[in-house]
From TrEMBL:
Sequence ranges assigned to domain Metallo-beta-lactamase in this UniProt record: 46-258
InterPro entries: Metallo-B-lactamas, RibonucZ/Hydroxyglut_hydro, Sec-metab_biosynth-thioest, WH-like_DNA-bd_sf
Name assigned to this protein: MBL fold metallo-hydrolase
Keywords, alphabetical: Hydrolase
The keyword Transport belongs to this UniProt entry's keyword annotation: no
PANTHER family: ENDORIBONUCLEASE LACTB2, METALLO-BETA-LACTAMASE SUPERFAMILY POTEIN
SUPFAM superfamilies xref list: Metallo-hydrolase/oxidoreductase
Pfam families: Lactamase_B
Top-rank taxon, per record: Bacteria
MF annotations from Gene Ontology: hydrolase activity
Length: 352
């Protein structure tokens, strides 16, 4: 949530020459178009969906949020390349978040397109559909993090917001491990990159020098960590290990889900790893200074590029800040730099 790259809100994408979220079907390579779809009520403004042309029709990487305004822009953008949703044969979805997954489910119900998603997203889908403990999992996590105020507000929100279960149906196929997918004349390496979510995947076209990075590697912001219903044990450790795996690939052109196209995956990966090491150091210093719970530590840290304090954030962003701080503290614990104890149901971190 805290990054020093140029502001996403003003970033121009080199493929379009205009703001990255401007609607259109922008060519990023031969037979590949970037289609930004709007995200109402979301500070990110848009999600990039990539349409890959094949002799049989279109394959889309990610799908957008299943809301009317997104669908209208998708229809109009596909028309720019002489296509429509009836030409979509398959979706390769990077992860289960609503702005990537839900529109694939609705379009599948219309045209029968095949939807693929990472297998490790199954627990998240089951919990969204009520297959977990029967209560919202986040409220308990906020309380364990010392964020009672956020837990109460989250519960009030959850009481009135009921998910449309039709949007959260299972995919047609699960991606498991690393594999190679044939998409028309292309071979895409589907690489499991847990961190942002447990089942996140990126798709690498090394022959063309392209990485469809989803939310794993974003050019101007850092993705949320540790904010999913089925919480991983070490989400930040997973994320940083997945970033390191990108360094083992050739330096590819970055085609992200949010923000402009960028030239170097490696350069951005290095920045993200440095960023999280800095946040780990700040979190450790906060513990050394007397902060105990994840919420208290988050209150000692700056947030967003504007270096806001925790009380300045809205409830949703304060919740993400608390969970991300927990992820940093848990990695410090795994590294042996802090220890934990339970005080009336709240996890306290102390210097080790």
């Amino acid at each position: 949530m805290n990054d020093q790259r140029p502001d996403t809100a003003h970033a121009v994408s080199p493929d379009s020459g205009v703001h990255w979220a401007e609607p259109g079907a922008w060519p990023v390579a031969a037979g590949i178009h970037r289609i930004p779809l709007p995200l109402p009520m979301d500070g990110l403004k848009a999600v990039n969906v990539y349409a890959l042309e094949t002799d049989d029709g279109l394959a889309l990487i990610d799908a957008g949020w299943a809301v009317d305004v997104s669908r209208a822009v998708l229809d109009k953008s596909l028309a720019e390349i002489g296509a429509g949703v009836g030409d979509i044969r398959r979706f390769l979805v990077t992860h289960v978040h609503r702005d990537h997954y839900t529109q694939a489910v609705t379009i599948r119900s219309e045209v029968g397109a095949h939807v693929s998603l990472g297998l490790e997203e199954r627990p998240n889908l089951e919990m969204i559909r009520g297959g977990g403990s029967g209560s919202d999992p986040f409220a308990g996590l906020f309380r364990a993090g010392g964020a009672e105020r956020i837990a109460l507000e989250w519960e009030r929100f959850a009481d009135v917001e009921t998910p449309d279960l039709a949007l959260w149906a299972d995919p047609d196929s699960w991606l498991e491990g690393d594999t190679t997918l044939t998409v028309g004349a292309r071979n895409l390496d589907a690489i499991h990159t847990p961190g942002h979510t447990q089942g996140h995947y990126v798709f690498a076209d090394t022959a063309e020098g392209l990485l469809f990075s989803g939310d794993h590697v974003l050019p101007t912001i850092t993705p949320s960590i540790g904010f999913e219903p089925a919480l991983a044990e070490q989400p930040l450790g997973d994320f940083m290990a997945s970033l390191a795996r990108m360094r083992d690939l050739p330096d590819l052109r970055l085609l992200p889900a949010h923000g402009p196209v960028a030239d170097s995956t490696h350069a951005r990966v290095d920045e993200l790893l440095d960023h999280h090491e800095e946040r780990l150091a700040l979190s450790l210093a906060a513990v050394d200074g007397g902060a105990r719970s994840a919420y208290e530590v988050a209150g000692e840290l700056p947030w967003t590029r504007h270096e806001r304090r925790l009380p300045e954030l809205d409830v949703f962003n304060a919740a993400m800040a608390t969970m991300e701080t927990r992820a940093h503290l848990e990695l410090l614990r795994a590294r042996g730099q802090v220890a934990t104890n339970d005080v009336d149901g709240v996890v306290h971190y102390v210097s080790a």
